């Protein structure tokens, strides 16, 4: 018999933001800089190296996580790539990219920059906050493109909002799939699933990595973007069947 969920959380729409903070409506300041100084970049490299060392023990022993099929990334080490994932852990989703790759960059909502303690360190950790106005969009896209040309991995959570321990794949933001069309690189997905733990109150997690996927070059750009979105979504829905424990039950109202 499957263990009973520990709690129930309610939502109206699948696009709701479940985790609410007092800075929920925070937007980037007009003078936010996506391009940084050499000193900042050196400090960022140091911090990311430290996080990389800590990521494996944190993911394994604190979040009880294991990764399946990680070998599909091996032929693409040292290349730019896109990795899409379902957003189910406010903290774990910060460390998993460092477990999977070296010096990753992660698209985040600006509100994350206001998190206590960790928020101010996130830019040093390699995050790219999503802009709130058109004036910031060009330097944002330059940072995204630079990630690929610098042979780094760009992690994207297309569900946009974190739903802790969610076991279903929510709708994806179509705009999240424009980047592989504009700056081509291999595309992967990672699907986090949850299983009951005999030894811990919270569930253990298994992450499945799949790919590479490539946009269909025979299609027009917009259709190519939608087709890639469908391919990634379908793959993650299939992997989500490996969820065997619903730690939090989400109920629509």
UniProtKB/TrEMBL annotation:
Q: Which Pfam families match?
A: Acyltransferase
The residue ranges of the Phospholipid/glycerol acyltransferase domain are: 81-195
Q: Which domain of life is it from?
A: Bacteria
User: Is this entry keyworded Chloroplast?
Assistant: no
SMART domains assigned: PlsC
Record's keyword annotation contains Transferase: yes
What are the record keywords, sorted? Acyltransferase, Transferase
Q: Which residues cross the membrane?
A: none
The Swiss-Prot or TrEMBL record annotates one GO molecular function as:
acyltransferase activity
Q: Which InterPro entries match?
A: Plipid/glycerol_acylTrfase
How is this protein named in the record? 1-acyl-sn-glycerol-3-phosphate acyltransferase
Source organism (scientific name): Lacticaseibacillus brantae DSM 23927
């Amino acid at each position: 018999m499957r263990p009973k969920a520990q709690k129930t959380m309610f939502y109206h729409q699948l696009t709701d933001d479940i985790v609410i903070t007092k800075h929920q409506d925070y937007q980037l300041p007009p003078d936010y800089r996506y391009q940084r100084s050499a000193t900042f970049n050196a400090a960022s490299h140091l911090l990311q190296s430290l996080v990389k060392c800590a990521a494996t023990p944190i993911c394994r022993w604190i979040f009880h996580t294991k990764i399946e099929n990680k070998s599909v990334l091996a032929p693409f080490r040292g290349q730019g790539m896109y990795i899409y994932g379902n957003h189910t852990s406010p903290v774990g989703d910060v460390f998993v990219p460092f477990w999977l790759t070296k010096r990753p960059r992660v698209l985040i909502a600006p509100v994350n920059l206001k998190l206590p303690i960790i928020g101010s360190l996130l830019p040093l950790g390699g995050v790219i906050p999503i802009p709130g106005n058109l004036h910031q969009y060009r330097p944002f896209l330059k940072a995204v493109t630079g990630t690929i040309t610098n042979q780094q991995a760009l992690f994207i959570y297309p569900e946009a909002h974190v739903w802790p321990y969610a076991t279903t794949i929510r709708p994806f933001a179509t705009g999240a799939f424009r980047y592989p069309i504009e700056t081509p690189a291999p595309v992967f997905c990672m699907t986090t699933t949850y299983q009951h733990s005999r030894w811990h109150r919270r569930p253990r997690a298994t992450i499945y990595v799949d790919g590479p996927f490539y946009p269909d070059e025979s299609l027009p750009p917009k259709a190519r973007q939608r087709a890639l979105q469908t391919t990634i979504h379908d793959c993650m829905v299939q992997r989500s069947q490996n969820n065997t424990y619903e730690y939090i039950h989400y109920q629509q109202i």
